[in-house]
What we know:
Blueprint lengths: L5 E8 L4 E3 L11 H12 L3 E5 H7 L17 E5 L18 E5 L10 E4 L7 H10 L4 E4 L3 H9 L5 E7 L8 E2 L11 E7 L2 E6 L1 H8 L1
Parallel strand pairs: 1-7, 1-8, 3-4, 3-7, 4-5, 5-6
Antiparallel strand pairs: 2-9, 8-11, 10-11
Amino acid sequence: MVLRPRVVINVAQSLNGMIAGTSGRRVNISSNEDLIRVHYLRAGMDAILVGANTVINDDPKLLVDRNLVRADRQPVRIVMDRKLKTPVDARILDGSGKTVIYTSRNTGNLENAEIRVRSETQLKIENILSELYDSGIRNLMVEGGKEVILEFVEAGCVDEFYLFIGNVLIEEGGLRLFNPQTEIKDIIIDVRPMERGVLISLDPHYLVRSWK
Ligand SMILES: NC(=O)c1ccc[n+]([C@@H]2O[C@H](COP(=O)([O-])OP(=O)(O)OC[C@H]3O[C@@H](n4cnc5c(N)ncnc54)[C@H](OP(=O)(O)O)[C@@H]3O)[C@@H](O)[C@H]2O)c1
């Protein structure tokens, strides 16, 4: 049996199912209460993983905000970046925490990041997870975007899936997480009303089966 970290997916979408605006424009969907929940989740993680487009469009710091929750240490920030397109001035490269970038490009250097060059096979989610487990990562939070989340779902490597649905609408043409053509039933395992939205827990196993 191949060991892997526990994988928690967290994502926020609008009432009409979008996780970003047109051309990937970042939209603020979370409420203050949700933000505290997300940082509390982060504080319990060994690492947080995102795709390169999320770094480019959102420029997240991916750290625990100590003004919001207590944290003794910061999670490792991991970026899946096949073509090594992370901007040199990205906030994850500000040196305030450890950053690891998985890429297939063996040229290029980025300050304040450990670049791990891997083959296409090694970049498969199952293999990355196994490598992360071997390096001591036991809890991994995946914070987007769509492409990366779908890879985890399709690989069947998701243990918890949190979806915050915010009290906002995003214009049609934005980025949709779920394919509305896909028929998925009975996947909600918990619902919690929150400030300016609702937090839904989805059954990752059922989700995987329904997606295929
Ligand atoms: N609402 C939310 O909660 C939330 C959270 C995060 C992000 N977002 C939104 O999501 C959007 C980005 O989503 P997205 O689907 O466009 O992109 P994404 O998932 O953030 O990133 C995709 C990128 O990751 C690379 N990648 C994917 N799998 C890889 C692998 N196994 N190994 C190496 N590289 C890999 C891809 O490389 P290749 O192109 O070379 O294949 C591509 O460049 C942003 O606009 C952001 O605003 C929303």
